[in-house]
Amino acid sequence: MTSRSSGLTVPDLSQTVSIDGEIEREINDLLAWLPNVDQLSADERRGIIARYTAVLEGNFIYWMTGAYLAVASEQARVIIVDNLLEEVRDCHPGMMRRFAIAANAIPTDSDAQAVYRNLMAVRLFVGRLSAVRLVLMMTFFEGFLQRFMTYLADLAERQGSQEREYTDVHGVCDIAHTEGLFRAFQAELALTRDPSDTANLFEGVELLRTLIQNIVVAQAA
Ligand SMILES: [Fe+2]
Q: Model pTM?
């Protein structure tokens, strides 16, 4: 996974195809980096679920709301509102909490502290409300989460959990969410005129990737 600086000024189809490919590569690299579940101890499995819950439960809707506040195009607003409606109406934070309880992995103070610094970096990035970078980060997030669900479900099952709702729902709905968010990204990119809006386009993606790695391996903070 390498860092890059995308000095885009005039969005066109070839650029968005290339960015789509970059996001796909980022997701593939991160999935390939995950430790083999067979080699994790029970404590390591619990820690991953607990840190994942500490980050996702209280932040996902907040970050998606940040994306909503940042975007200017009607197309992006409609896509993001649909996503938020599903999160709130179906109480995804509650689903997340039930998943953690069933796996005996309720986050502790230490779990929260283990991801504090990298979580704060993503929060501060979201607070800048940089539309294209933030929507690209959320596209990467949804795309990764959808494919991470099998791994997460495996961890929970090995912890003796029978709870499947969270991983089943997110293994399916996040496919459409990822496609929708990439369309939202394209709509926002088409509105940009200032080159500074698209410099370091992957900034949020890289901060979030570091946080996800910190969720999986606490010592990486
Ligand atoms: Fe969700």
A: 0.91
From the CA of 56, how far away is ligand 1's center (Å)? 9
Residue stretches of the chain with pLDDT short of 70: 1-14, 219-221
- What the block records as the tokens of 110 is 């230490």
Q: How far apart are CA 69 and CA 129, in angstroms?
A: 7
C-alpha closest to that of 219 among 103, 88, 51: 51
- Between the CA of 14 and the centroid of ligand 1 the distance, in Å, is 31
Contact 206, 121 (CB under 8 A): no
pLDDT of residue 180: 92
Domains of the chain: 38-220 (1.20.910.10)
* Per-residue model confidence (pLDDT) at position 42: 97
Separation of CA 128 and ligand 1 centre (Å)? 23
